[in-house]
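Hi R.,

Here's the chain you asked about this morning:
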Amino acid sequence: MKGYIKAFRLGLFSITIFVLFSCKSAQISKSLSKSLKANFYDHQFTGFMVYNPRTKDTVFNYNGDRYFTPASNTKIFTLFTALQFLPEYIPAFTYAVAEDTIVMRGTGDPTFLHPYFNDSTALKFINNYKEAQLLINNFKNEKFGPGWAWEDYDRYFSPERSSFPMYGNVVTIAHDNNLVVIPDVLRSRTYLTQSNTQRDYNTNVFYYKSGTKNKIEIPMVMDSMLIDELWKDLIPNKIKLIHKTSRILDQIAYSVPSDSLYKRMMHLSDNFLAEQMLVLSSSMISDTLDVDRVRDSIINHHLKDLKHKPRWVDGSGLSRYNLFTPASFVQVLSKLYTEIPTERLFNFFPSGGVSGTLKNWYTGEARPYIYAKSGTVGNNYSLSGYLLTNSGELLIFSFMNNHYTKPTSEVKARMQSIFEWLRDHY
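And here is the predicted structure, written out as tokens:
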């Protein structure tokens, strides 16, 4: 009899907890639904999904299965891809040595002489040999991603993709009494101007607007002529560009810690680093660099359980061809949360009110409560990541806004009020 009473009480307790939790979930869902049905959202397309990984419950789902233009939220899939394929240190290039000659093939490593990383691994290697040969035709894809806007060719956020990047594939220009140009070999082709154009189309002739005080970065045209010129400027009479080799390039040189690349890509929403991370990932499965192949591998193998297969065309999210659902972002964020220690994972993401693209938004009261990736392209803004509630729960979310005409700051302000309510009431 005592055992029966004990079991009854335990069952009653479980039912009570379930009812209370259900009531709370219903209250959360009702309040969030009311917020998203406000007149503010009448003339845009909105999706919002919230998931609790501890209870494995969907807390809220509003258009979570609809496809949206994700902009730089695409970088979450790029991060996931890199974490599946890349080792602890970035593979800088593959190579073979024959007597006094080193033969090298690029892997897509973006850090070589990059304005931030300034890695010099390749130079250190080459200095040990009398001659160096660089294989330059192992990148299969176009230099621009599908759907990139052609008029962005001279903008800092749209560098060309390549197999062996140099200087971040940009020329860096500043003005301190005189023009300061890196790489310096392009100084003779850089001019002061009154125009907003920063480079001649498809030509390495650059312009710096008079009166500008900031340092600027302009994409270079990474053709074989420029690559040869840049290398000869670094190490005269030592490097030779080749299109094929009979040697097996099975040795690997490594550059910077991979986590440093992931963090900068996510915090600054760096398009170039994101694109090259897919190129790098492809180097781990083939000597021919092919970002389409590595994306297909991720979708068809590592993420074959995705409920909604995305249309995924680039690594950065520059293209409006990309289409993802909030549910897909929640699924991938859940996988990352399961596979990676929280401290390391949160280090990759900008934190609200503190770092990266979220430094001026989503500020916590005593500590950050949001760790997430933003995505912005004209008339579209999304945010996907992790939210810490005052009750100690961790929630995974994706909040996507497409096709609005109001200022993005107003969209962010609305989102912030919703996130704060969720933080305080869940």
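One quick note: Confidence is low (pLDDT under 50) at residues 16-20.

Cheers,
M.
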